[in-house]
Design a protein that fits this description.
about 210 residues, alpha+beta, 4-stranded mixed sheet, 4-stranded antiparallel sheet, 8 strands, globular
């Protein structure tokens, strides 16, 4: 795999992720270096309430440091209890991560993986099947509740996170799947998001596993 191919796949994945956020966050606006993604109905959910920087192009390292990130967060998320900054420029993120951590920011990494093989060659697994929306929501709420969020988490956060996933499925074409032992209840789920045009490419993204 060439470095150019990997960079192209990453750019497509980041663009698809941003498009899904923007469709669900109806109050979102373009800002310097990226977007302010907002969904007031689900203000406690970071994925739909964040500043997202560096998706379409690299950020000027001389113009973006910890002070700049905090300034943007204050400007566009002043009314949020928790603020979230997504930095899609990895070298810049690595350089300023320490400074942000010392100011109380918590670092979370996102990993994108591209399927290189033939998707039609993947062996079917009888444990997997499509799910209806009600099955998926119920299992997502249960899975989120098992994560044990800290005492500062918003009231009813598992239900809010599941509601955010429902909103994203409603605003981006998607398919729902689950896996279970034969005759049993689903024990795991995933959503396949489908985007017909991401920079001229068709992109399918599996997430919320």
């Amino acid at each position: 795999m060439s470095r150019d191919a990997a960079a192209g796949d990453l750019a497509a994945a980041l663009s698809a992720d941003l498009a899904t956020r923007l469709r669900a966050g109806a109050e979102s606006v373009a800002i310097d270096g990226g977007w302010s993604v907002r969904c007031d109905r689900l203000a406690a959910v970071h994925h739909l309430n964040a500043i997202v920087l560096g998706t379409s192009f690299g950020l000027d390292p001389s113009a973006y440091d910890a002070d700049r990130i905090e300034s943007l967060a204050r400007r566009w998320q002043a009314d949020r209890v928790d603020r979230c900054a997504v930095i899609n420029d990895e070298p810049l993120a690595e350089r300023i991560a320490g400074a942000l951590a010392r100011r109380g920011w918590e670092r979370v990494r996102t990993l994108f993986m591209a399927l290189r093989g033939d998707p039609l060659a993947v062996a079917a697994d009888p444990r997997a099947r499509p799910l209806c929306e009600e099955e998926l929501v119920a299992l997502q709420v249960a899975c989120f509740a098992e994560q044990g969020f800290g005492p500062g988490a918003a009231l009813g956060l598992p239900a809010l996170l599941a509601d955010a996933q429902t909103l994203m499925r409603a605003t981006t074409s998607s398919l729902r799947f689950g896996a279970s032992p034969p005759g049993g209840e689903p024990a795991s789920t995933c959503t396949l998001f489908l985007d017909e045009d991401v920079g001229g490419r068709r992109v399918a993204t599996v997430e919320a596993v």
